[in-house]
Amino acid sequence: MIATLFTPLLQVSTLDLLALEPPGWGGNLLRGLVNSVIIAVGAYGFGLAIGIGGAYGKLYGGPILRDLLEVYTTVVRAVPELVLILILYFAGTDLINRVLVAVGHERIDINGLVAGIWVLAVVQGAYSTEVLRGAILSIPQGQIEAARAYGMSPLLMLRRITLPAMLPFAIPGLANLWLIATKDTALLAIVGFNELTQETRTAAGQTKAYFTFFVAAGVLYLLLTLVSNRIIARIERWSRRGMPSISGSTR
């Protein structure tokens, strides 16, 4: 009789333990974190490439190119990122398939990882354009004039003068964009991509342990930010080598 009374309690206790500590869910969260990092790195890299071209186009391009880039950066920075992701993810993939059908090809299923990187890269590119444009304007004009006097081509001047000289001015803004990219990956959960936030939602929904899993996801995002800050600090010290330190100049 005693065993009969305690059997339901033992069953409830077992179910609760399975809900709070389900086997294998930790691996799902780590897989989601890896996906988030891959998306962030890809989007940041492509966004940086767009930003370099956009900044150069806004500073040295023709009037039509400058106007187009101004529209691009204004629209992307004005529209909420979640709305942009929905537009670019669904409308963009549909537009690509319509173009393929128009030229005689079959429709394709675009990989979620590729689509996520492409969508966030478009967003990152607009912000990178403005960050890099401001950094280029911070370069002493004498260096640019000297490069032109030596007859350097625009690409050679970009590689040897502009990029190295603007890097110390651009790193703080670019560092912020990297941290934004890592957090923006969470917005892809709304389109069903299995990054960290989506994996956390799935685990929490299956186990009902919402507090446990979302706190765990927050800790993983925090660890990613701390590691990123250490790497960014090293890059910033490297880019400012030979330049007087800020702390030393204030003494």
TrEMBL record:
Keyword field contains Membrane: yes
Main location class: membrane
Pfam families assigned: BPD_transp_1
GO CC aspect terms: ATP-binding cassette (ABC) transporter complex
Intracellular or extracellular location(s): Cell inner membrane; Cell membrane
Molecular-function GO terms, alphabetical: transmembrane transporter activity
Family: Belongs to the binding-protein-dependent transport system permease family. HisMQ subfamily.
TM helices/strands, residue ranges: 38-57, 69-90, 161-181, 209-233
Domain ABC transmembrane type-1: 33-232
Name by which UniProt lists this protein: Amino acid ABC transporter membrane protein 1, PAAT family
SUPFAM superfamilies membership: MetI-like
Key words of the record: Cell inner membrane, Cell membrane, Membrane, Transmembrane, Transmembrane helix, Transport
Matching PROSITE patterns: ABC_TM1
Gene3D superfamilies assigned to the protein according to its UniProt record, in alphabetical order: MetI-like
